[in-house]
Known about the structure:
Blueprint: E1 2-3, E2 45-50, H1 57-71, H2 80-103, E3 107-114, E4 118-125, H3 146-153, E5 156-161, E6 168-175
Parallel strand pairs: 1-5
Antiparallel strand pairs: 2-3, 3-4, 4-6, 5-6
Helix pairs in contact: 1-2, 2-3
Amino acid sequence: MSTTRPYPPGDLGPEPGPHSLDGMGGAPTAGASADAPASAAPSGQIRRLRLAGTRGTVARARDFAREALQDWGWLPAGNADQRAAAEDVLLVVSELVTNACLHAEGPEELRLRCAAKVLRLEVSDLGAGSPAPRSPHRPGRPGGHGMFIVQRLCLDWGVVRNTDGAGKTVWAELAAPS
């Protein structure tokens, strides 16, 4: 399901509750939390990776996400379900960053937000278009499967336009491993 929410990236809306991601504003960012022990509770942590003007963007984003998953205790996985959840995160990161590279002049930033039950991925870019799964989906044809994969693996995903009119943030939410 794709949705467009009326609030900007970083503001997850006015829905406080046990499953909300509110209260993350003061969480550590990449670098600041790199020394946190893997056993620390990940809830509320935010990691940021600046991607503008870099080479090997997709690989850098995957490596960054893998390191965050290790710090948050998702990796190494203790069982097949946990391994699948971590692999889904890495695949969705790859798909969102690749889409920004191919269709939006490259990504500006990757953000990972970890809550108790949900991991939120955000990729910001300066592109004008909006991603959407190709319809009809044609599994036998090369290319065009990225947003279909995101839609299938994620609890929800969507696009938030930047308030200054330049660019957007594509976000996706995945369930934490059980």
